[in-house]
Amino acid sequence: MSLQAAVLSAVSGGILTVFCRLALARFGRRVVNFRGECVPSGYGVYAAAWGCAVPLGVLLSGGGEVARGNAAAALVTAACLGALGFLDDALGSHGSGGFRGHLRALLRQGRVTTGLLKALGGGLAGLWAAWLLRDGTEAPYTAALDALLIALSANFINLLDLRPGRAGWTFLFLWAVLCAAGLAGPSGTSGVREYVFLTLPAAAALAALLPGDSRGLRIMGDGGANPLGGLLGLGVCLLCPLQARLICLAFLIAVHAYAERRSLSVLIESAPLLRAVDRRLGVR
Question: Taking the domains of the chain in order of start, what are their residue ranges?
Fold first, then answer.
């Protein structure tokens, strides 16, 4: 990353942080967590803001065509999913019960929920980001595959944001694993370096805010979980070969199919290993 891009990224991140602070002061909500306590929600937008900062700095400073395409995809992912998630945090009722519940509210009551807007908008944002990643060497259908990966990854982290620390620590673990595994992928060291440059500020912002989440003092919210998950999916698209992307997509589809009918929290509590790991992530 050039010095100009670094300076522009820092300035962009500072401005976006102030904007998020104002948005939380005006539209932030307190919600009841799983222990019945009323805590502030939505602090994850700070991580989304820093997820936008470096891509914005790279785009403003110029650079190669590939770098601009990847930065634009990261910016679309963090900005669109962050804005849609915060809209759901600020205005959503969170009582529709998954994607089927949002569709049921539309078909039976004629009511468009913020969750439905988030799901549809997230899918379009994923498609937009996937199209920006195209370099002309892969078949056109891979854009649809990558769009699904980004959108489902976004909601995967969101599904975990039901207990303190669970979503945030899972993101940081998977982000580190993805960066390490990417070294053996088709893009190699250069691809991992670029992905780390684009996403490290978001991961660092989350790490700074995560202790409060782990102690149950606040909730990340969709405005943070969705863009962070989307950036994970973007990393899979950038760093992994087609076969690995297909495996990740199959896993995400299976998780979402299960979550539409049953509770992931109940599944985690029923598996001794998952329960032991989960209880180390935050208060229970």
Answer: 3-278
